[in-house]
Amino acid sequence: MNKSNPILKALFSSETRIKVLSHFFLHPGEGFYLRQLEKLLGKPVGQLSRELLNLEKVQLLIPSIAGNQKRYSINRDFPLYNELRKIFLKTIGIGDIIRKSLSKLKKVELVFIYGSFAKGEEYNRSDIDIM
């Protein structure tokens, strides 16, 4: 995500929080360590740590301890999970990622997303069906 979506920025004032939530909503069922997120999202550890703690406090992210590290994953039982997921997927979701990935290919005029991801029934090992 190069630019913050203005809708999300108005709702979520922290660009770091937007990046964190976007990443977790696009990777449900997966867990990430702080240093992994630093590399993946390109944000400083201090900012990420603060946002992870805030999201842990409201129980949107669930920590698990592995050795001396916390691994965070999104809480699919969070009361607003489905609504927040829809907001993120509609504003920065998979369509933008696919568009960016396919932009290098010539002669692509139209792409459809179908299957479990399009229906909102994906799980952590779901593939994304495009036509």
From TrEMBL:
It comes from marine sediment metagenome. This is Polymerase beta nucleotidyltransferase domain-containing protein. Residues 98-130 form the Polymerase beta nucleotidyltransferase domain.
